[in-house]
UniProtKB/TrEMBL annotation:
InterPro entries per the UniProt record, alphabetical: Ala_racemase_N, PLP-binding_barrel, PyrdxlP_homeostasis
Top-level taxon of origin: Bacteria
Protein task: Pyridoxal 5'-phosphate (PLP)-binding protein, which is involved in PLP homeostasis.
Record organism: Lutimaribacter pacificus
Protein's recorded name: Pyridoxal phosphate homeostasis protein
Amino acid sequence: MGLEDIRARIAKAEAEAGRDPGSVTLIAVSKVQPPERVEAVLQQGHRCFGENRVQEAAGKWPGFRDSFDGIELHLIGPLQTNKTRQAFELFQAIHSVDRPKLANTIARIAQEEGHCPDLFIQVNTGEEPQKAGILPADADAFIAECRDMDLPVQGLMCIPPVEEEPSLHFALLAKIAARNGLAGLSMGMSGDFERAIALGATHVRVGSAIFGERVAAHPA
Ligand SMILES: *Cc1c(COP(=O)(O)O)cnc(C)c1O
């Protein structure tokens, strides 16, 4: 547990997969964590964090940004279109692009603002009705649609079903990315990030294994 341990495990997984050291970005998922735990990780020099709610991030990160330089924030949870502009102000990357309406809104605001966060398209690899994400069968068309809008799509993201072996989902995501020429793969959490790295993850989203269990105000 803790940042140093996770960094060491990532380095080991990179080596075992024959991947370059540092080829995997660690997104420390700080949602719901008490500020002192987040500050401790900032003090250790880590700068890349993930949040799943725009509102929560807006309350917490401007303050940390006053005290620490170089913070990079990733939005890893669902984005309502009416919060898109606020998301542009806070986040350097959005991992939850999951529907045409949102892609359209992002394209319009990118035009107006003259910049756009890095984008990952979320794929619902388990085809779970309650889960966000484009269905695997619709992914190629949606990726093409986003590219037609000149959106900076870096890669794909998935959250595998809780009850299933995640490797099958990581492999599916990697396959969809490869056939679409996308390099980024946002996959792997506390319980499975090593398996995700073995299958090509470029961004792992690790929360509880760094910060400790979340106080269950609002879980994932
Ligand atoms: C909360 C969350 C994570 C981190 O989960 P842990 O199991 O605590 O590592 C990763 N990805 C998403 C999308 C999340 O919402």
